[in-house]
Design brief:
Blueprint lengths: L1 H19 L2 H12 L22 H4 L28 E8 L5 E11 L2 E17 L5 E20 L8 E13 L21 E14 L12 E15 L6 E2 L5 E12 L2 E11 L11 E9 L4 E9 L5 E10 L2 E9 L11 E8 L5 H21 L2 H17 L4 H31 L1
Antiparallel strand pairs: 1-2, 1-15, 2-3, 3-4, 4-5, 5-6, 6-7, 7-8, 7-9, 9-10, 10-11, 11-12, 12-13, 13-14, 14-15
Amino acid sequence: MKKTLVSALTFAFLTFAASALDYTSVTSALSDIFSSAADDNEGITSFRSLNIPAGGRAEALGSAYTGLCDDISFFDYNPAASCVLQNTELAFFHNSWIADSAEETLAGTTRFGNFGLGLQLKCFYVPFTEYNLYGDRVAGSYYSETSATINASYNFMAGYNFKGLAVGINGRTSYRSVPDYTDNQTDEIISGSGLSQSAVAFMGDIGILLRFNMAKFYSGREPNLRLGISMNNIGAALTGFGDSIEVDDPLPAKVSAGVSYRPFSFLLFTLDFKQPVNLQSPSQLPLFSLASGVEISITNFFSFESGLLIQGGNPRLSFGSQVDIKGAKVNVNYTFDLTSSSNPINHISVSAKLNLGDRGRAEKQKLIDAYYQKGLEYYAQGTRESLESAIEQWDLALNLDKRVDPAIEGKTAALDLIRWHELIRDFGTLDKKKQD
């Protein structure tokens, strides 16, 4: 009940704050500051919805997520993350964008050992209304861009000390649906007219993720420093169908590098650098962007996020919170930029992520820990028989996970001690023979 109340109060606060802001003075000030940062090559790509975040926690962190990606939001940032997520997750995102547009996202991911899989379906849509020369409404439908993504990743050389090199790929196809329009003379809808402007795109992403421990001021097995690099939306789009197929404008491809650092268990910092690339006209290179975010965990079930994205002449400032309610994580986020509106309120996003379990990994780890601890107890006794018992326990741990480095090191040390026992025994035997 308390968690639900916190979530409701957070949503109410963000909604009130959004409506209470004096947008005129704020946007005017920001326009003056960032006007010189406007990008001359902005808006030359197709399928612009690929740049719209699904929403939720990743957007609340200013979209500085390439080097974090510790939940199901990884699809649009770094495809390498699915193989290192703790749990199987299912999530729904709703992002209320601008001018009555919105984006809906459904995603799922699971992991088999060091192999991760994921699926995502995303749809951006905006009402399309056509009026004739007299101002009469003659047609109404929706313009939409729908993307389907399949993900696969693997964590190479994963162990206790070195957490592995996670490498992942996304395969994505997108479809742009343009509604049919009318004849200016008759106001009759021309069947199939929108199809000539519709398009289909094929693209891929590739990414890597590394995890380390550095300057860590709390206990925990999950590394506190993450580094990520990814290339996103590498591909091409085709416009029209039938005999009128043409290559569409370039896709919003980009190269991203990010880092996340958690010095304390309750505090997280993220930072991203993103460089858009134009594969069709490399000389028309859009400006880079910088993003940063911070997360503060107030309790074990409630956290607050904020982020800043500097991208051309339209900076974005985000605020959000996440509440853990009985295995479901609910996030509410508000993003303010120069296109934000208080009537109606837009740039509000919500997400719900369901934890569907870890496929027994936690229980397996407990069993490994028990075998390792029992081995230490035998090892401390120091006799040959106890050392052999310690090796047996560590072998049981290694049968469950062959890269349990402490068990490997303990087994090596125990075998060395057994060899020393044998040398001492043989030396004593030889000495006795000499006396005889």
